[in-house]
Amino acid sequence: MRRRLIAGLVTVCMMIPLVGCSGKEQEASGEIVLRIANCEEYIDEGDWDEEETIELEDGTTILGENALVDDFEEWYEETYGQKIRVEYSTYGTNEELYNQMSLGDVFDVVCPSEYMIMKLMKEDRLMPLSETFFDDSVEENYYSRYASDYIKGVFTDLSMNGHTISEYAGCYMWGTLGIVYNPAELTADEVAHYAIFMNPKYAKQVTMKDSIRDSYFAGLAIRNAEEFQSEEFLAQPDYRDVLSERMNDTSQDTVDEVEDILSDMRENVYSLETDSGKADMVTGKVLANLQWSGDAVYTMDQAEEDGVELAYSVPTECTNLWFDGWVMMKNGIEEDARKQQAAEAFINFLSRPDNAIRNMYYIGYTSPIAGDADNTLVYQYLDYNYGAEDEEEAVAYDLGYFFGEDAPHVINAPEEQMNRQLFTQYPTEEVLQRSVVMRYFEGDANDRIAQMWTNIRCFDVKKLFRK
Amino acid sequence: MAFTRKQLGIPYALFLLIFVVLPLLVVLYYAFTNGSGQFTFENFAQFFTNGKALGTLLYSFVIALITTGLCLLIAYPTAYFLAKGRIPHGAAWLLIIVLPMWINFTLRLTAMKEILSFLEGNLAYHPFLNTIIGMTYDFLPFMVLPLYNTMEKMDHQLIDAARDLGASDAVVIRRVMIPLSMPGIVSGVTMVFLPAMTNYVVLDMMYNSTYIMGSLIGSYFSAYNWHDGSMISTVLLLLIGLLSWISKKAGADTEEGGAIL
């Protein structure tokens, strides 16, 4: 999974050698071969128990019997009358995927994060989605028909090299960056700021992710905290643009200041965790942890099973709006129309609301698929998960920005869900007002930040002489 | 059908070629080229002028040194008593010491962490100490085994003879036992010291977020900087080569000493 690094355990890449499936062979058998690379554990692999069946209000039942990839092969042949074979492989991180592709692995469809999509766009390695993909009148164009307008808007606002992300990528999962915390020990005010990680009161009881980009984001937010919360700043007409600019600042001076902040932070935190954060929160060793919303949901679910209640907070300074998206690789598709159709059909198949629900259930992350006034499966799924049983104690949670005002969009949920899984999976519109997409750092900027991180992590010889 | 010795060696030679020699050549290629593929010594110079890289080298060296010292200190008497102590069920005791090696070491460390948390309260206050404890725990069997093997073959009569001739305990240890067990010490030290310099998993698990050589190389690779990462690997390789050469020499010298004895 994108956000879950498995420390130390050598990740065995299931790289199927692609020898022997040359174009000629494909033509001979009439079978399309689609090479898909995705993060580990980032798709429904089926095999659910009977009792896991999701029963929605309108009588729809959803159960992952087979892996979604197998279902796709079957669906594609039924729908398009062509045989398809998926060669599915996985990778651990965006960097691993990039390195694999640099070393000669060829894929047709891959699922990187926003900054890696931008890097690949910059290098002109992506194939744009076809016009047909965006045609709402075609029944099978589930992505175009059902993805939330809000997310689509984010995709059209972001551009690289004069092209918008939406021309190249279909969003797969999205979310925010925030703090998972133990509400029994910490107050909501304390976790409303990234500075909690520097608070000596909680020395060695809070933990950060071992990640350059996320740490840089948190450090930058701390550096700018006071300004970001000032009334003048918030009142600016182009507030969101300024915020985005400031949170993508990679000038040397800024990087140096963030380095100082992060050096102090490293001394204060319990650790820079790779995969221990969840367990340490359940045992109570750690009171707060910087996490991606998708992982936060998983952490809360796991803690709940052990009888510990955790909550999620999105700091008031700002948050990182992140997403992973499916893109087509130029060197894989090679302008083969049949292949491109299959690749786009795959993105659409994953965007069919029932399949989106299967993935959300299996992974715990949030899909951009919202449905519309006629297809309300995703809304029903939310209601099924979070709807309050006792209507009197319920709070109306408005997700109009996501589902659209014309479709049902208010969930009546128990009050506790206002800072738990429901809020984590689907933040309020107000939270998204202060969200920023962290762009890909190009060339020198990337080097500066990588160097900053090395500086923080390496043993400083000068320290010996200072004492 | 009979195979000649040469033919029997083919599988291993192939293995060496594909998984040792070729990757090594790739590392060397990257270490001595720059981004545009030109030959350069710049990466090399950069390593030795980079305070952070040298600091990491020092840090790794210190960790490895302390770990090896502790392992030796614990393993030496243990191996001696197991091999020569005439304790009942010696083989069973050896098995108990070797047994942990059968369990995946991340599992062992997880268990170790719980015990340390219980003793120390909050692990995060003692990252260096915990790293040393974790490493020592992890590598101890690798020190005990070679020492045990050498000591088992050691002729006990030589020690008795030294005593009969009036040598004190200290002299017996210094002049007889240590020289005789030198081959075991050398192979034990090699098996502990070198991996301890790069084993960053123990640091990660013990919440020590300071880089050692292994993690530093990894950090360069994940920033797509193959050249500097490969150079650090090459420097490490040279160091390992140097250390093996020294230990081999030390081993050879003592063999001569043993003959004189």
Task: Describe the fold and architecture.
The complex is a heterodimer of chains A (467) and B (261). With 467 residues, chain A is of the alpha/beta class. Chain A folds into 2 domains: 198 residues, 3-Layer(aba) Sandwich (D-Maltodextrin-Binding Protein, domain 2), CATH 3.40.190; 174 residues, Periplasmic binding protein-like II (D-Maltodextrin-Binding Protein, domain 2). In chain A, 42% of the residues lie in helices and 16% in strands. Chain A contains 22 helices and 19 strands. In chain A, strands 1, 4, 5, 6, 9 and 16 form a 6-stranded mixed sheet that branches. In chain A, strand 7 and strand 8 form a beta hairpin. The two termini of chain A are 43 Å apart. Chain B has 261 residues and is an all-alpha fold. Chain B has a domain of 154 residues: MetI-like (MetI-like fold, Orthogonal Bundle), CATH 1.10.3720. Helices cover 80% and strands 0% of the residues of chain B. Chain B has 12 helices and no strands. In chain B, helix 6 runs antiparallel to helix 9. Chain B is globular. The termini of chain B are far apart. The C terminus of chain B is likely disordered. The chains are: A alpha/beta (467), B mainly alpha (261). Chains A and B meet through helix 3, strand 12 and helix 21 of A and helix 3, helix 10 and helix 11 of B.
